[in-house]
Design a protein that fits this description.
Layout (H helix, E strand, L loop, with lengths): L12 H17 L52 E2 L5 E2 L7 E3 H17 L7 H18 L49 H7 L14 H12 L9 H11 L3 H16 L2 E3 L33 E2 L5 E2 L43 H4 L2 E4 L5 E4 L9 E5 L10 E7 L5 E2 L5 E5 L5 E3 L3 E2 L5 E9 L7 E8 L5 E4 L5 E3 L10 E6 L2 E2 L4 E7 L14 E2 L5 E2 L1 E6 L5 E3 L10 E9 L4 E8 L16
Parallel strand pairs: 3-4, 8-16, 18-27
Antiparallel strand pairs: 1-2, 5-6, 7-9, 9-13, 10-12, 10-15, 11-14, 15-16, 17-19, 19-20, 19-25, 21-24, 21-26, 22-23, 26-27
Length: 595
Amino acid sequence: MAAHFGSRLRKGAATTAVAAAAVAALSASQAPGVTADGHGRQSAAGATPTGPEANTDGAATGNSPYYTELPPLNSPSPAPTTGTPDGTPVVQGPAEARIPATVLDAYKKAEAKLREAKPGCNLTWQLLAAIGKVESGHARGGNVDAHGTTLSRITGPPLNGIGFAHISDTDRGAYDGDTVYDRAVGPMQFIPSTWAWAGRDGSGDGKKDPNNVYDAALAAGHYLCRFGWDLSTAADLERAILSYNNSRDYLNTVLSWLEYYRKGAHSVPDGTGPLPSRRSDETAGAGTGPSPGTSSPAPGRTAKPGGGTTSPSPKPSAPSKPSKPSKPAQPTPPAPPSTPEEPAPGKPTPPPTATDTVDRLEDAGTGRLTAMAGDAFSERISTRAETKGGKPVGKVRIRFTVIGDTDATFTGGEKVATVVTDASGVAVAPALQAGERTGDFRVHATVAGRMFPGVAYPATVTERAADTLTRTSDTPLTCTPGGEFADEVEVRATYKGAAADKVAATATLITSDEDPAENDKGPHFKDADGNPARTLKDLRTDAKGLLKLPKLYADDTTGTFLLRITTAGGATLTVELQVDPADPANPSPSPSASS
């Protein structure tokens, strides 16, 4: 479980020294996937952190608590393999290097899918394993079924603003069982409001379940790879981890496990992995078992101080003196069930957060959102959060969601982006990138953690267009009756001086300049069956804006003819074709054998 509790960690000097040594080893070794990048990398223009401490979208986990155990300094490389009587190999190695089989498979499958979907991210399964270890101890030692779904719910404490962030319920308890506050859920500890847009179906069952390790691992991978981050660089790796949980201690703990798993890890049967202990919001050595809302230890294990587990070991008890008979105890009436609506007795009511003070969202001067297919929108969406009195509200998370039948996305390929408002209450969304699908859609701006109407921004993607067409050659196009033209017609399309690629075009042999109707005689193309064709549709320029037409043929009619080429956007070019009888003194190309 993840949290921003760096100042609240109760770890001794030895633990801190281990973390420092592990992080120092990571920086010094610069193992593959963590290369130095002193300057960092700017991402999603204005919507991403400007430094490693920045927190763009409130953390995937809502900054919930996490487990602070650190790996040992010795190498986790497994010892030689032995075998059981039935021949099943058993890999021996440190307990800290054990990862339950199904959970490890989920991490590796997520890496493979991200390698295909976002190859520039360079996500590794070891990073997912490091986060999964810190968040839930690999689903509490691999307490999952054959499909990767946890056998019991893994949830964090209610985010009620008392020692944690204040996030009111956003899922009506569907994922976390709490209808008042949100809680981090599942093996990778997503809060419901984040899962609503970051959730993925990694198991292939058609559902997005944060309690399924395949779904959760794939969602975590996409979350870490948003904004075009390259996790093979130290700067982007830090940004991604801090966006998952905005705590330097959390960052150092994850990096320690990442380096440890890079040196080696091995699979163990589900349910036999070590259970997590020492949660970040608990005093070291003073834990009282599972955290509120978390699953119970696996069968056969009992909770030990700090949240770990031990095997049951009965202790002999001293003989007690016989006591006098006493009156039967009167049954105590059951206490009414507690509800999360009211804070625990003696605890103060949390003060309203900035999010609580938002009364409405207003457009902050966004212009018309229009872009050509394949281009970036020049206009950026700008939204302002205001109180009931019209005052701006800073430090509020605004979620922008692309809605509709469109393949347009924000920079980085995501359809959802969350941006924190500045001191003037304004949040500027990342740049929109149009896809190939034309038409209208909208972007909806809402306040993360609130459930009142937001602001809808209409947007339009138009088809690719050209404003100019020119021939690439000035050679006259001539032919003799019944022959074929020696040169093929090639044109270049441009838009505002730049090559216009993938632009739709039509070519027609027209009657005259005044009559654009299709001519019924003279030069022609040939269709697939070899029959004359005087109109070609569904043509498209190439990546350089070039369009080369098929070969032209002539019938027995002589004279001057016109070929008109038009494109989306209004570009038009009329090309002159000449069919003259052969001149014995200066022969033209002879008729083809096919003609």
